[in-house]
Amino acid sequence: MIAIKNEHELQVMRKACKITAAARALAGEMVRPGVSTRSIDRAVHDFIVSQGAKPSFLHYSGYPASVCISVNSTVIHGIPDHYVLKEGDIVSVDVGACYGGFHGDCAATYPCGAVSAEAQKLIDVTKESFFQGIRFATRGNRVSDISHAIQTYVESNGFSVVRDYVGHGVGRQLHEEPEVPNYGEPGHGPRLIPGMTIAVEPMVNMGTYEVRVLKDHWTTVTADGALSAHYENTVLITGGEPEILTVTEGL
Ligand code: MF3
Ligand code: CO
After folding, report:
1. Ligand 1 centroid vs 212 CA: distance in angstroms?
2. What would the mean pLDDT of 215-234 be, rounded to a whole number?
3. Beta strands in 155-239 (DSSP E)
């Protein structure tokens, strides 16, 4: 069952998502050489709590932090620690916040100081693939129409999309139906209906799409050690254009 949110629920969810987006922006502003990933996690935690919300990821399935910070060849679920960011790193920040019983979920990859042209292209293509995907996030389309658009755009730019992790419905639960893969043929999966809220989140690798999970059971890295980037927003299906909920305007 895919939850359809009513207008009252959406008002609350918009607020949850604005807090989440502001937390992402705060983390992004902190990305610079000399800053530890743990200090970003602390700042984001304190910001979310100051807004009357809760960090969605903290203790989720035992996850030990409020943010996932995934540097360079780490794809997702990097655990903030004593690592100090250095010039040239690319830094994926993924954050969730729960307010009034609803979750927001969003991510972005930020350059730390000056990065290589290839790294910047990876960041840009990953973000643009999200926007290419949500062109199809409209009433009556099927979920995999989004997936196919993302894959086509990414691969036409010479990069690959991760298969082992997918986007998802989001609302009262951080992860709800449906799954939203970033690859596949169009015309499959559930039909999109106004009131559905989904997290569309392409994870894009510079080399192979294959990934592996480190012994901490969280940190997910590219199998070949090449760079990876991530971009995610929580999106509402409407009767017209999709509405990106994880925006900072109007918090
Ligand atoms: N945004 C991610 C997701 O949608 C992060 C979840 S990390 C976890 O799955 F720690 F909460 F598991
Ligand atoms: Co997500």
Report:
1. 16
2. 99
3. 160-161, 167-169, 176-180, 197-200, 203-205, 211-213, 220-222, 228-230, 233-236
Please tell me if the CB atom of residue 99 comes closer than 6 angstroms to any atom of ligand 1. Answer: no
166 CA → ligand 2 middle, Å: 8
- Domain 7-240 bears CATH identifier 3.40.50.10240: no
Q: How far is the CA of 41 from the centre of ligand 1 (A)?
A: 14
Ligand 1 near 199 CB (within 6 A):
yes
pLDDT digits (tens, 9 = 90+) for 102-135: 999 999 999 999 999 999 999 999 999 999 999 9
Cα 176 from Cα 189, distance rounded (Å): 14
pLDDT per residue as tens digits for the range 16-38: 999 999 999 999 999 999 999 99
